[in-house]
Design goal:
Radius of gyration: 23 Å
InterPro entries: FCP1_dom, HAD-like_sf, HAD-SF_hydro_IIID, HAD_sf, Ubiquitin-like_dom, Ubiquitin-like_domsf, UBLCP1
Strand content: 15-25%
Strand order of the largest sheet: 7-6-5-10-11
Structural class: alpha/beta
Number of helices: 10
Catalytic activity: O-phospho-L-seryl-[protein] + H2O = L-seryl-[protein] + phosphate; O-phospho-L-threonyl-[protein] + H2O = L-threonyl-[protein] + phosphate
Order of helices and strands: EEHEEHHHEHEHEEEHEEHHH
GO molecular function: metal ion binding; protein serine/threonine phosphatase activity
Distance between the termini: 79 Å
Organism: Cotesia glomerata (Lepidopteran parasitic wasp)
Largest sheet: 5 strands, parallel
Keywords: Hydrolase, Magnesium, Metal-binding, Nucleus, Protein phosphatase
């Protein structure tokens, strides 16, 4: 590339013209110029459609064959925005978020990235939900995965019911007292419907499922830790049903990245595998039912740290013990 060139950086809904770049300008120099324009430090910048194969200080504009006017998409947050997102409100309860800082910063960046918020809005507008049982007034929301959460989908058994996680129906019956229940799996709707019938969840007389969500309700995101992945943004539900929000929603999944768009609302459940070996000793759903009951009266789930759910449950249980 000869002479000066300009690259357009799209970030946070705006476009920034990065000028005075030469063919021998490095990616590190490009990031420094982006910092001048946006306030996002180079180590916070994730350049989504820039295919770098080496170190930023070694790769040059000419090596990447970037043409003048190339539009570059960026993820990243300013330091002041990260500090504000991590600010602890003065009036929260004793149970607060103190998650791993580096991963939380990336979660914040992904959660608030304009490109992904636009994808969620598109799902809200186009994804069709078949409601089995309408939302109930005053109920919180529980969103459940299937594979390795409620069902061991990899093991072999003479019947599917043998692969069901122990205490599933007791868990759903107890949860239903305080929560509307949604099933969300990263598979097709046909598969979800069949599995729910197989497990006798669909028409169970002791609880009701509000609706199912499948892979088409998910979106693709890019993260430094996982690369390109599909995730389950709760914003799709919140955009369609105003009574649900981060204040009253909790999602269980055995894969943490599935709730990277809503890190504060997700609880990583212990995966249920090798059903024939663990069927008689797995009590995870009973423990989680206790937790759901313990937090049912919490007004704002955003004040909770679901990573420490076992500690929270034990504290509540301790207070209830007679003297």
């Amino acid at each position: 590339m000869e002479g000066e060139t300009t690259i357009i950086v799209k970030w946070n809904g705006n476009e920034y013209n990065i000028k005075d770049l030469q063919g021998d300008s490095t990616i590190l120099e490009l990031k420094a110029k982006i910092y001048e324009e946006t306030g996002v430090k180079p180590d916070r910048q994730k350049l989504l459609n820039l295919k770098c194969k080496g170190q930023d200080a070694e790769q040059t504009i000419s090596m990447l064959k970037i043409k003048p006017g190339f539009k570059l998409m960026m993820m990243g947050s300013r330091e002041e925005d990260i500090a504000e997102a991590n600010r602890i409100p003065k009036d929260v309860s004793e149970v607060i978020n103190d998650l791993d800082v580096d991963q939380d910063i990336e979660d914040i960046e992904v959660e608030n990235a304009e490109i992904y918020l636009a994808k969620i809005q598109k799902r809200i507008e186009t994804y069709k939900i078949e409601v089995f049982n309408p939302p109930r007034e005053g109920k919180k929301l529980l969103v459940l995965d299937i594979d390795y959460t409620l069902f061991d989908h990899r093991s072999v058994a003479s019947s599917g019911i043998e692969l069901m996680r122990p205490y599933l129906h007791e868990f759903l019956t107890r949860a239903y007292q305080h929560y509307d229940i949604v099933i969300w799996s990263a598979t097709s709707m046909k598969w979800i419907n069949e599995k729910m019938k197989l497990l006798a969840v669909t028409d169970n007389p002791n609880y009701k499922i509000a609706f199912h969500l499948d892979c088409l309700a998910m979106i693709n995101v890019v993260t430094s830790k996982y690369g390109l992945v599909e995730v389950k943004p709760l914003g799709v539900i919140w955009g369609k049903y105003q009574q649900y929000s981060a204040k009253n929603t909790i999602m269980f999944d055995d894969i943490r990245r599935n709730f990277i768009m809503n890190p504060g609302s997700g609880l990583k459940i212990k995966p249920f595998k090798q059903a024939h070996l663990n069927r008689d000793k797995d009590k995870e759903l009973l423990k989680l039912a206790d937790y759901l009951e313990a937090i049912a009266d919490v007004e704002d789930f955003q004040t909770l740290n679901h990573r420490k759910w076992k500690e929270y449950k034990s504290k509540r249980s301790h207070r209830k013990r007679p003297h």
